[in-house]
Amino acid sequence: MVPTGAYGTWPSPIDARLAAAHDGRPEFVGVVGDEVWWTEPRPAEGGRRALVRRRPDGSEEPVLPAPWNVRSRVVEYGGQSWAGAVGEEGGGPLVVFSHFPDQRLYAYEPDGDGEPAPLTPVSGVGGGMRWVDPVIRLDRGEVWCVLEEFTGEGPGDVRRVVAAVPLDGSAAEDRAAVRELTGDRHRFVTGPRLSPDGRRAAWLAWDHPRMPWDGTTVMTGDVTDGGPFTGVRAVAGGPEESVCQVDWAPDGSLLFVSDAGGWWELRRMRPGAEAAALCTGRAEEFGGPLWKIGMKWFQPLDDGTIAVIHGRGATSLGILDPETGEVVDAPGPWTEWAPTLTGHGSRVIGVAASPRSGYEVVELDTSTGRTRVVGSAHDDPVDPAYYPEPQIRTFTGPDNREIHAHIYPPHNPDRIAPDDELPPYVVWAHGGPTGNAPLVLDLAIAYFTSRGIGVAEVNYGGSTGYGRSYRERLREQWGVVDVEDCAAVAEALAAEGTADPARLAIRGGSAGGWTAAASLALTDVYACGTLLYPVLDLTGWAEETHDFESRYLESLIGPPEDVPGRYRERAPLAQVERITSPFLLLQGLDDVICPPAQCERFLAAMAGRGIPHAYIAFEGEGHGFRRADTVVRALESELALYVQVFGIARLDVPLLELRK
């Protein structure tokens, strides 16, 4: 007989160290010769990102040993950080990558005897020089990519251009040897995509105050022998149209994903013709928010078809026939495909996950229609019986608006709950806020649900995956709609008898940390909250954060010169007198996106108010925790908060010192 145990007291084999070991996911897949390569996290190795190769015999091995860290800092969130090519005359592979500590580009032949050799110089000005979204041009002896170059000490003293870096290392000590292919007319650019004949390039550009999901422009230019692109012009997109990816079809037509019709959809522009949607009448997304340079939602294939990631809420991988508009989805259990795709002949490779499996590298053979896992394969670290069973639900919020959420009830095969008890629940507010909570296995969620604490992930108004109108519900309403939607879900769960109304908590990181903090101040729904590297002070944040998001608040809150009072009124820093619930604040000391100064001002304002709270700062961590020991302490401290506030009787949790 399965014993009875109060919610929150259940024993679980999913400890914090296990959850930390499975934190993060593979990214940026590519094909080099006959091999599939990708980057993946190494929490136990200081949080570095390793570049991994899958050899034809199926074995996996790192391309670079520790401490090489293949990760870019362009726009701080980085992006496509490597490119590979097969050497000429049957030589071994060549990889060009961005090394995180110094942000230089390096070239390396992994099958040779040498060490990685720097290709770019070091700059001592501000954030230096950074590189992302590389394309190797062996025919020209160059790598083409985005250069982010700081011109001063401030976060906004920066320019970005498409540049060509010599592969011979001549620019390693000579900035003048870097050839700029575009001017710096636009504040932000993506890397170039070359037409099949190599004569034209296409890329995306946008400018402050827009974010890339607000409005971007498709640029094209003619490739010259030794100078910058010529004939540069805008061919699609605009201030109110978000294009998140551009590429070329094998026949030379231009392909791009635009939300001009209210959903991100794939369009084709043939020479001399207007752009036309390739798959109409489907209320779903074929793209997403461009948080990282080089994200890919589609991949042109040699036979003229196009691999596409698409869906409403959850996503699938499909093959689109551009002539008929028909999409045939790949078989398999996956409910979420990350925005990274590559193709090789009849093969399409991506990264996908499901509620029963973490992210893994998956290959679709379009000639047979079969899928298989080819890398970073999910391997159940515990009995899957301990995984939560998600419920996809739609709630009703203020003004009868729909709110999408994933509900993870407490679940443990070794315990049943008393009949007279309702479980505690934690509402998770995702970051961004222009982002979403994917429907995938997350051991951090299982860490709580297997102990008897439910989790509700809310895709509040402003989330992606449900069309532009849903995304724009948050326009000038950040701190209102997100807070209301999270509260509506929490209150609905309590009203229907799913959750204990006296034991509700909220947690979030980054923009989700803002929502969590604002929720503690503006509602009386939650007994406590966990704030991870949050935004807390709007005016200060706009001045302190990095360039990419420095004008983000103009769409989320409004132009500061027009609504200065709104900046003061909505910030949790200005609402500290209304916070009466305990909270845990977790912060990386190297965070340049949400700097620790935000936390320091917030804690100073809370001082002497008698509200129990804890503040834990982590050296060497930036925006988002990557090191295993950090993730372990963060999870255990969060559980300790709920144990103490909810009155849960368990002794295997380190005591969290709550100060007043």
Q: Helix coverage percent of residues?
A: 10-25%
Overall shape: it is: globular
DSSP E strands, number: 37
Terminus-to-terminus distance? 44 Å
Oligomer: single chain
Query: Mean pLDDT, nearest integer?
Result: 96
Tally of alpha and pi helices: 10
As a whole number of angstroms, the C-alpha radius of gyration is 25 Å
Task: Enumerate the strands of the largest sheet in spatial order, edge to edge or round the barrel.
Answer: 30-31-33-32-34-35-36-37
Structural class: alpha+beta
Instruction: Name the poorly predicted regions.
Output: none
Strand content: 25-35%
Major sheet attributes: 8 strands, mixed
Q: Can I get a quick summary?
A:
The protein has 660 residues and is of the alpha+beta class.
